[in-house]
Design a protein that fits this description.
By secondary structure, this protein is mainly α. Helix content is 71%, strand content 0%. It has helices at residues 8-12, 16-27, 31-45, 47-63, 70-91, 96-108, 110-114, 123-133, 135-138, 146-157, 168-193, 204-213, 215-238, 241-246, 256-268, 272-280, 291-304, 308-322, 325-333, 339-352, 357-366, 370-379, 389-399, 404-420, 427-440, 453-463, 468-474.
């Protein structure tokens, strides 16, 4: 390796004095680099000094009100990441007590940050989710009063508007212990029993209008959901399945999604018969909410009860109805030798005849069965929805090497959709697809019943000659 390559070993040869001079030079005009260098200098003086600087920076971040645009977004994420690293990597090993308080303060900064930045990408949230998970490493190293910690947890979950404290009860469960969790339970139950707060100065007419609009009813529902959520989280932390289930009403347990969740808990507690009965009592919902979870749990309950043939029958029925590959794989896995080959052939025939083309294509690509996908595309090309480019684009890529004609048909469907619907934002993609079609033309010896590339291109030029923005992108 060249001695001029930028790496740690080569830079060490420059010596401390020259490196210090270079760092001073590159830090000029860069607040980020200066801030990082000061943090490293503070760490050199000990965890207390570093903690002072981190706490000062967190206070600044919390008090800031200016909106962070996309140009400063990366800098903010880097700043947050550096502060977190100082807490968990440098302070925690030397003083976990200080690190615990700083990590708590770090999470408390979240609402201020979320309030002034667009986190549609979720990368800001990733930083705070990574931060709260680090309590799992630091908390066991700190001697904390369980009741005081319970009060502290109760305070933050009441104002968890951005979900920054999600999971904190589970993370603190071991440290809270039985007494801390009992105190936290008492807080939640007392809140649930207390009347909904209203503005005492409101006139009776205003209160009447609120009731008429259902505002008070919504508040009651919100409060009930809050209480149920945290009592269930406490029950999960203590492993109390009965207490967890008790938070659901009889009406709740008739919902397929909730029935599936509770039934899985019962199965884990060796109460498979009760799980199966619960699932069978769930009501059919025309919208099929929770149907997938219900099917999976129903199969699990049958297996737990030793009803393997019934489980197999339901797996096959689920596959036939939805083309869920997981159910088919599990079904084939439990068949004797040779029977699985016949079953897979029957499954392939069912896929090719499945009423919804897009579902069938998705199955073929994910299974994977590119040959079946090519047959499906060629025999049912009129059913292709060219607007489903998130499905068709990867499907075409998966088919282009072995089944170029099928890939071309998928690209053509997306090109036709973009041009016929005037989707100008898709013109660039359509031009790329047409280029791909041209690239594969030499590999397709027989276009079968479909127009050759030159014919297809002339048709496009005839029907869409005025779409100059498309042809400009193509050229």
């Amino acid at each position: 390796m060249s001695k001029k390559t930028l790496n740690k070993t080569n830079l060490e040869t420059l010596g401390a004095e020259q490196l210090a001079a270079l760092l001073m030079e590159v830090s000029m005009g860069s607040a980020d680099i200066k801030r990082r260098l000061r943090l490293e200098l503070s760490h050199n003086l000990g965890p207390v000094e570093l903690a002072l600087d981190v706490r000062k920076r967190l206070t600044t971040l919390r008090r800031s009100t200016s909106f962070v645009g996309w140009r400063k977004r990366k800098a903010l994420i880097k700043d947050l990441t550096i502060q977190l690293s100082m807490i968990v990597d440098k302070i925690a090993p030397e003083d976990p007590v200080i690190a615990f308080d700083l990590l708590w303060q770090f999470i408390e900064v979240a609402p201020s940050v979320y309030g002034r930045v667009d986190d549609s990408k979720g990368d800001i949230g990733d930083v705070f989710r990574a931060a709260i998970d680090r309590f799992d490493d630091i908390t066991p190293l700190v001697l904390l009063d369980s009741n005081a910690l319970a009060d502290r947890v109760w305070a933050v979950i009441q104002d968890n508007g951005y979900g920054e404290w999600d999971g904190v009860i589970s993370l603190m469960a071991n440290t809270l212990g039985a007494s801390g969790l009992a105190r936290l339970t008492a807080h939640v139950e007392a809140y649930g029993a207390a009347p909904i707060e209203t503005d005492g100065e409101d006139h009776e007419a205003i209160q009447f209008l609120r009731r008429l609009r259902g505002v008070e009813n919504n508040a009651a529902k919100h409060k009930a959901r809050f209480v149920m959520r945290y009592l269930q989280e406490i029950a999960a932390a203590t492993g109390d399945t009965s207490a967890y289930i008790a938070q659901y009403s009889d009406a709740d347990l008739t919902r397929k999604d909730i029935a599936a969740e509770v039934a899985m808990l019962l199965i884990s507690d060796a109460k498979s018969e009760g799980a199966l009965n619960l699932l069978l009592n769930a009501q059919d919902d025309e919208r099929d909410i929770g149907q997938g979870a219900w099917d999976t749990t129903y199969i699990a309950s049958l297996i737990a009860l030793g009803r393997i043939e019934d489980a197999q029958s339901h797996r096959w029925a689920c596959f036939m109805a939805t083309l869920n590959p997981t159910h088919l794989r599990d079904y084939l896995k439990h068949l004797p030798d040779f029977e699985d080959v016949e079953a897979e052939d029957a499954a392939r025939k069912h896929v090719l005849d499945f009423p919804d083309f897009s579902t069938a294509l998705k199955f073929c690509i994910n299974w994977p069965d590119p040959q079946a996908a090519a047959v499906l595309v060629k025999t049912r090309h009129t059913e292709i929805n060219g607007g489903l480019y998130p499905l068709l684009t990867p499907a075409a890529e998966a088919l282009r090497s072995r089944y170029p004609l099928a890939a071309v048909l998928l690209w053509r469907s997306m090109i036709d959709d973009a041009l016929l619907q005037g989707r100008t934002s898709r013109y660039g993609h359509a031009a790329d697809h047409l280029t791909d079609c041209a690239a594969l033309d030499a590999e397709i010896v027989d276009y079968e019943i479909f127009p050759a590339h030159a014919t297809y291109l002339r048709t496009l030029q005839t029907h869409h000659e005025r779409k100059s923005s498309f042809w400009t992108k193509l050229s």
